[in-house]
Write a structure and sequence with these properties.
Length: about 575
């Protein structure tokens, strides 16, 4: 496979393949050494990979242990060859099985290592040096630099002074904030900042969230901006109680200006930077901007609003604490992230509507990889999906909602297997390839192999801005089927490249990024937004955010208005 070939060109891949080749050599020479009663040499030779792994770990430190886990596991496998001991029956059936099992396991670990072949440890450098090296590495390895027109020189010029200030103050939280803001500028959910320290993570969240003034805000389809999450409830922590109700502000109150600026101008000036969030699709971020604006201001903010009698009034809102809790609660409600359903969960919603929840394209690691090797052919999973649909039909299902909101991705062929049930045509799923000075080049094609037995079934697919990677792929593959209607308050995330790059900046801060190109049949990046940030998987239906819907969505009950809409739509169809 092409990804395996590229992995082999990295230091990680070279090391992994070297262990495999070394193990093959051991399989030939160890029997001869055993016959000559030189078992001590056998043990020494078999333990060398473990010693080399120990040296590797000592150089890189514990911070990268999990990134190299498959490499370290592979280094232990040659010890299996020494298990038969000093017996002269080294070539017995048991010994031969152990040798082949060892070689096969080594090869399997190499296959798993393709998910993270490019790992860089800059933790021994200063903040400024690690930051520079991060940008240099991204410029060299990030697979969408030209597609998104990333200006690395401008990023260095803009953010280096803040990095230097963080270094001067020994402020790792400030450094984390800068790195988070830089990765936001890539507008790619696969380019993200990971913060392992809970303390630093909280500080970073509070920094970007801003101040709490007792409310959040959302825009409605009629162009108005209304207050939401005004009520106090468990999970919100205030220094003192809000008095917004006494001012006449409650859920649904229209806000017309914020801190002396017209509300729409203020919204347009707001960026949605927050750990764990990215908005490749600009129209998705536009919906979230009012939520983030509600945390912008100083000790006080001046607002104007329309009271219940239709009169415009002004009020000064004082800072109640940090906005992190209220913002997080608002995000949970808008993204509907409070479900605890397992992957591939299904049920009947009512007498006629079935429901299938897919949280990730991750069915069975071995089977998933075999399907990748077979260019997307996945009969085992097709049968699994068909069995689910048949069980729902046996309960009276006439139409189906597939919920892939907050889908975290995985293997595209897991998405293609479901889409195959809805089409009778062999379709391009995705292609692997590379980019050089002359453009993009396809090296390997993967397909949706048709089954088509449910091409007449009415299906609504729910997506949101947190549906990313292979989740985006599922949105596209299903959305291309004529019996499927793609819908949501927001479109899906707008990313589909293959990750594999990791940069460790400090013990607590790292950056993840995609390195392998996933291309369309036309030979351009599949699904991912370019520098214009325009959505490339358009919704069939934008679920409206009316005032009534917004109040219900952001109420303490957190009504799932998207699912309600999908069921009603299918009933009408």
């Amino acid at each position: 496979m092409y990804i395996l070939y590229l992995t082999a060109k990295t230091s990680y891949g070279i090391y992994s393949i070297s262990i495999l080749l070394y193990t093959i050599v051991l399989a030939f020479i160890c029997p001869k050494l055993i016959r000559k009663d030189k078992y001590a040499i056998v043990v020494f030779l078999c333990i060398l990979p473990v010693l080399s792994a120990a040296v590797h770990f000592a150089i890189n430190g514990k911070i990268t242990f999990w990134a190299y886990k498959y490499l370290y596991l592979e280094s232990v496998m040659p010890l299996v060859i020494a298990i038969p001991g000093k017996k002269k029956v080294f070539l017995s059936a048991k010994s031969i099985v152990s040798i082949f099992a060892t070689l096969g396991t080594c090869a399997y670990f190499i296959l798993l290592a393709t998910s993270s072949p490019m790992i860089h440890n800059y933790t021994r450098y200063s903040y400024t040096e690690s930051f520079k090296k991060m940008l240099e590495t991204l410029e060299d390895e990030y697979c969408l630099s030209s597609w998104k027109k990333i200006d690395y020189d401008s990023l260095l010029e803009e953010y280096l002074p803040r990095v230097e200030e963080a270094e001067k103050n020994h402020d790792e939280a400030a450094y984390a904030a800068v790195v988070n803001e830089v990765t936001y500028r890539f507008y790619d959910s696969h380019v993200c900042t990971d913060i392992s320290s809970k303390e630093i993570y909280i500080k970073t969240c509070e920094y970007f969230a801003g101040n709490d003034y007792g409310l959040s805000m959302i825009g409605t389809d009629d162009g108005k901006v209304i207050a939401i999450c005004v009520e106090s409830e468990d999970g919100f922590i205030y220094e003192e109680p809000s008095d917004l109700n006494e001012l006449g502000i409650h859920n649904g109150t229209e806000i017309t200006s914020w801190d002396g600026q017209d509300i729409h101008d203020a919204i347009n000036d707001t960026e949605c930077i927050f750990p764990g969030l990215q908005f490749p699709v600009k129209s998705n971020e536009d919906l979230f901007r009012p939520l983030f604006l509600a945390g912008k201001g100083g000790e006080n903010v001046e607002i104007t609003f329309i009271d219940d009698d239709g009169n415009e009034k002004s009020a000064r809102l004082k800072k109640l604490g940090t906005y992190d809790d209220r913002l997080t609660c608002s995000l949970i409600r808008l993204l509907h992230t409070n479900t605890d359903y397992p992957n591939f969960y299904y049920k009947m919603i009512d007498e006629k509507c079935g429901y299938l929840y897919i949280s990730a394209e991750d069915f069975d690691m071995l089977s998933d990889n075999i399907a990748v090797a077979r260019k997307g052919y996945y009969p085992k999973l097709v049968k699994y999906y068909a069995d689910i649909i048949e069980e729902l039909k046996a309960q009276g299902m006439e139409y189906l909602v597939v919920d892939i909101r907050n889908n975290s991705g995985g293997y595209d062929n897991v998405a293609g297997a479901l889409a195959s049930l809805f089409t009778e045509e062999k379709k391009d799923m995705f292609s692997l390839g590379y980019e050089d000075e002359s453009g993009y080049h396809i090296t390997e094609n993967h397909y949706i192999f048709p089954d088509g037995r449910y091409k007449e079934l009415l299906v609504a697919v729910l997506v949101n801005a947190n549906c990313v990677s292979a989740g985006d792929g599922m949105a596209k593959f299903l959305g291309d089927c004529p019996n499927v209607t793609l819908m949501g308050i927001t479109a899906s995330g707008g990313v589909n490249q293959n990750n594999g790059g990791y940069i460790y900046l400090t013990e607590n801060i790292s950056v993840e990024y995609p390195v392998f190109l996933s291309l369309s049949s036309e030979g351009v990046p599949l699904i991912d937004t370019d520098y214009t940030r325009e959505n490339r998987i358009p919704l069939d239906i934008n679920i409206p955010v009316t005032k009534e819907n917004a109040i219900r969505l952001f109420s303490m009950d957190g009504v799932d208005i998207e699912l309600e809409y999908a069921v009603h739509y299918l009933e009408e169809k």
